[in-house]
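Regression test attached.
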Amino acid sequence: MQRLRRFLRSPRTAMWLISLAGVWIFLGTFVPQDATDLVAAEAWRVAHPVWAQITGAIGLQAAYSHPVLFALVGLLAASTAVCAWDRTRRSVRSWRHSESVLESDVAALRSRPHFIIELPAHEGRSSDVLVDAERILRAMRLRTRRGPSLLLARTPRLGLLGSPIFHWALVGLLLAVPLGWLVRSEGLLGVVEGESVIDAPESYGVLDVGPLHGSLSGLEIGVATPVELSYVTDGVERGVAPVVTLRDGDRVVAQGRVHANRPLRYGAMLVHQDDYGVGIVLADDVGGREGFLIDFAADAGAVASTEFQMSSETTPTTVVVIPHLETNADGMIALYEPREMRVTASGGSEWSVVLAEGDRFEVEGTTISIERIGYYARLSVVDNSALYVIYVLLGLAIIGITLAIAAPYRVVHMLVVTGENGRALHVRVAHFHREAAFVSRLGDRLSVALRATERVSR
Amino acid sequence: MTLEIVLMWTAVTCYAASTILYVVGLVFRMPKTVAIALWVGLVGLTPHLAAIGVRWVRVGHGPYLGFYEVVSSYAFVSVAVLGLLVWRRSDLKLLGVFIMPVSFLLVGAAMFTPKAELEITSTLASWWLTIHVTFAKLSYGAFAASFAIALVYLFRDRAAGMLGEALAKLPSQEELDDLGSRFIGIGFVFLGIMIAAGAIWANEAWGRYWAWDPIETWSLISWIVYALYLHSRLTLGWRGRKSAWFAVLALPIVLFAFVGVPLVYNSIHGAYLTGY
């Protein structure tokens, strides 16, 4: 256990782990990643079969979800935790002793000063020397406490908190980010305007639920009529911006217009606008009702269509509906007004007809009415309870590193020592940044102010 | 547009003149020429800032979009950082011999790229853009300063003759070493804020705070590289030449992350630089 702790607390271990994680992430940038762009990744594999075998063998095309990276991150978290613990203990000790000089400090000042300033024989009393030194230290923005022959100076103690806060926040982030994916759910669902769906797995076209997420919310997700295709606010074209409502039974729990940079929030749930298409609601004469989502084809959308099977005992009939579309002035694909669509049946029945909202047609003895020809909003629904924890940890990490960098903790101890060769000022400096120039600068200023005959660096 | 171009070319001329004067001043041991070189470079900031301002008012957004705006603003930040350094430590004006040519080349390259006026898209229309981009530029400025300081540190010992004499007037190696690491510390914080702001913004815009997009990944790699630098100094006690080489080799990684990645990779972030 001791060996493991020693291994984890070693600065070299930390350097190696950070380096290896960095190298692995770097290597991942050379090949298209499956998780980011599967099509590009497949194309790359086809174009580079030899390299694909090598990268496939080491899992480089899934570099960022690979066990190698998780193992490195896990070890790094452990190493950072041990380091954070050590830093915390050191900081607590320094905080406690920040107003006092221990006997061990005095002993160190006598035997192991960082530098010694030999004072001229005619220089005044010890306390006068320290008054001059105190002036210098205050000019260097250090707080001082002075005794008859001893001087303590330090920067604000807040600087002591920086490094531990940063390292603990980093440990939290190294754990919370991967664990966050386990408690997260993300999916895409389509809602026809004026309709609503339940936040349940069957409503989603694409759904990715982390193993620790639990069940979906069961809230009703509705999209109001009409779906705005070219919403402009603050002089910026926001594109498609549906008004989305979240209901818990009859109670509206959240409602708002959703567009890029403006998701709808409810607790840890975020609803983003992703895309849009044509939404058609058909109803039959026995109470059946179904919404159909039609995505636009890549080019102009004119051929967007959907089809459904009518089951009968004799011959199945395929009914294809093709909405009439146009590209509007904003470059958006829109429904042609008046809203119509061509309905074509093939199989048992063979016919083709153009119908509008409210019209009916008959297939295999069933009367079907066209309840709505409109748009549907494809919504991205993310539920991530770890998100705000991650934000808090990010904030703490930034506060911590800012304190550590901008307000480093420095302590200066000075002691006037009288010896056979006269008096000398012994100086020890503790500074978390190990700034050699700070020690030199202090020595230079003290030497001038105290008219030193000699300065000896140890 | 014409006014902006005239202002930009004025700035380019100042930066070019500053570069030439720095070289002449060093080669012919003319300290006054070096001082003039600095002032000419700093004077160039005025038309440069005015050009950025004119464009900002006209297109309705800061220098965030397209190669021309982004690279030109990085050149501006480089010279502004030089000014800031000299304001705090006048003996650092010789750093301009490294910073001015880089700034001149950056802004010169920007002038020969298309100056398309890209509109802020719905994804970019966010306060996070300002925070994200501001900290990106600040971090670049800090790393550029550390880069120049590290170059001086590395070559001062070896510089003979005129250059050696000129460089000898700079602060001590010890001070340069500390100063360079302080800039890297500040840049590290700014880069961290940039990454955090970008993550929060990505979550607002796309519902994902991290998607391993090439720019995100390279920003993280840059942050890791500087984390290694700081770690090596603070825990392993690396100092002097090792640290300086580290700082010199790290800057190209940041530059690649900020400017090179959108040109090499197909990235959802690419639109800010390439416009598509």
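Expected vs. actual: identical. Chain A touches chain B through 55 residues (CB under 8 Å).
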